């Protein structure tokens, strides 16, 4: 017994030497009498327990008529201490009887810690851990989600007509790690041996006793029994259970194991205790079942795998056609957007040729192109990702059946690694594409912002050059007239001839007069003529 006043065991000690205790998973009822000598210590332990417990706990004191009374009215009275315990991911037990009876409860499937009042060596199973508890009312834990790959042996493996004999959750009975010690360990090991022993039979039913049968070359019937006397039986049963509970082909493993057991047991053992017969025949049956299972897998793999591979190929082609049509649909949508953008670009080009609206129109066209490009990439990425996820999900289902003949190492190297490498390449490519498009969009947008600046700087310079190279018409005409007069005076020609030639030039084409050199049109006559 513990001496801590915060411990539940102190309350139990205060109700006499042999209190009557009834315990379930969620409630503990302790009936007894509080003597005057223990009254004060019981009150202190009760107050300390109230201070330590959380809202999930509750404690009350009842009299002989089960009416609630105060702590001051317990002396020399037959009282019942009612403690309501939390039930969840952590479950509490104050007695070994309560722990033993609760091990069959279905709610423990979602629990991960069982705390038992007392001192012993803890142990862990594939379902939960069994830990010693000092009686302090600790808070509970939330329920844990069950594993989706868990196997229920009652579905397609063992036909249990009783509904409760074969465990629905066999993993809680398989030890994980080192053995424990103490009474909780012995109670659990005895129950685990009996529970796991029902996994290696064909049928379970109830008559005057619980019976099982093996459907082999000849049907053998046994009485299940209540307890196994062989101390090493659990290790053998646990080893065979781990070999049997493989989700990929549990039914095939179970069939070859049952046939081996049916052939090994003696005729004289029929209708005897199954828990006494099983330990002697189990190891030999396991060795033979492993050989039978390998031969079964090899014989099955030839035609079955070929047929399933052909079926997978046909299904893959059908899926590829559908995905290709989806890609065409998305591509057609993008092409339509590109056509609309082209028309918009033509319209914006006409606007820029009429007005000086290049910056605003260019930015609008830039944003439209970016929006269409990003819509195209996002749509294609969505379609490709969804297609890849669906393909991987279907491939996972196919791999379980198509690659049955491969060992685990060969399966990883030949079937799984190429797929994983392809998925990594897809993720890396998608990541680089996304980053590249961000950089390209920034450069594209920056170019449209900078081009109008260069355009506005170069336009005044071109205007000045054109005005410098092309003189006004009036200046051109005046210059030509002065040149003609100078040439005429130097050659000694009469002024009238110069005037006549000038008038003739004016009556001709004005454009030719402005663009041509007058010295080329009319040559001055020599003085001899």
UniProtKB/TrEMBL annotation:
Chain spans, region Disordered: 465-529
Highest taxon of source: Bacteria
Transmembrane parts of this sequence: 329-350, 356-377, 436-454
Composition skew (Polar residues), residue ranges: 465-506
UniProt keyword terms in alphabetical order: Membrane, Transmembrane, Transmembrane helix
Official protein name in the record: Uncharacterized protein
Organism for this UniProt entry: Vreelandella aquamarina
């Amino acid at each position: 017994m513990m001496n801590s006043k915060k411990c539940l065991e102190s309350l139990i000690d205060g109700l006499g030497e042999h209190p009557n205790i009834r315990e379930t998973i969620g409630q503990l009822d302790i009936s007894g009498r509080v003597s005057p000598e223990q009254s004060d210590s019981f009150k202190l332990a009760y107050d300390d327990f109230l201070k330590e417990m959380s809202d999930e706990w509750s404690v009350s004191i009842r009299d002989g008529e089960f009416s609630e009374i105060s702590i001051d009215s317990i002396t020399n009275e037959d009282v019942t201490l009612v403690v309501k315990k939390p039930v969840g991911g952590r479950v509490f037990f104050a007695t070994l009887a309560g722990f033993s009876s609760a091990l069959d409860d279905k709610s423990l499937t979602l629990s991960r810690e069982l705390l038992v009042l007392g001192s012993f060596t803890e142990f862990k199973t594939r379902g939960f851990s069994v830990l010693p508890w000092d009686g302090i009312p600790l808070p509970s834990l939330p329920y844990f989600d069950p594993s989706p790959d868990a196997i229920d042996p009652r579905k397609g493996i063992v036909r249990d007509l009783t509904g409760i004999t074969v465990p629905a959750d066999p993993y809680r009975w398989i030890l994980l790690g080192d053995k424990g010690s103490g009474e909780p360990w012995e109670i659990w090991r005895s129950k685990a041996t009996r529970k796991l022993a029902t996994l290696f039979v064909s049928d379970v039913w109830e008559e005057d006793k619980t019976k099982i049968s093996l459907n082999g070359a000849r049907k053998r019937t046994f009485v299940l029994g209540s307890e196994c006397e062989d101390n090493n039986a659990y290790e053998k049963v646990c080893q065979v259970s781990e070999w049997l509970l493989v989700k990929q082909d549990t039914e095939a493993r179970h069939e070859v194991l049952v046939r081996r057991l049916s052939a090994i047991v003696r005729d004289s053992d029929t209708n005897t205790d199954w828990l006494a017969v099983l330990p002697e025949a189990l190891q030999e049956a396991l060795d033979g079942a492993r050989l039978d299972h390998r031969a079964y897998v090899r014989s099955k793999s030839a035609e079955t795998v070929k047929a399933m591979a052909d079926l997978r190929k046909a299904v893959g082609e059908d899926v590829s056609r559908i995905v290709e049509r989806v890609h065409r649909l998305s591509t057609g949508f993008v092409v339509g957007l590109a056509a609309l953008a082209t028309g918009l670009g033509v319209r914006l080009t006409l606007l820029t040729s009429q007005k000086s609206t290049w910056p605003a129109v260019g930015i609008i066209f830039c944003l439209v192109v970016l929006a269409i490009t990003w819509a195209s990439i996002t749509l294609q990425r969505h379609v490709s990702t969804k297609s890849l996820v669906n393909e991987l999900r279907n491939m996972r289902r196919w791999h379980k059946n198509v690659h049955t003949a491969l060992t685990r190492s060969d399966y990883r190297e030949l079937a799984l690694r190429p797929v994983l490498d392809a998925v990594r390449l897809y993720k890396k490519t998608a990541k680089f594409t996304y980053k590249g498009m961000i950089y390209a969009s920034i450069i594209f947008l920056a170019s449209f912002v900078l081009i109008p600046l260069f355009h506005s700087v170069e336009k005044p310079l071109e205007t000045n050059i054109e005005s410098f190279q092309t003189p006004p018409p009036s200046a051109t005409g005046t210059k030509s007239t002065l040149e003609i007069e100078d040439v005429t005076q130097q050659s000694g020609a009469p002024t009238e001839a110069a005037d006549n030639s000038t008038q003739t030039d004016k009556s001709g084409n004005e454009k030719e007069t402005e663009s041509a050199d007058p010295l080329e049109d009319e040559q001055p006559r020599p003085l001899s003529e």
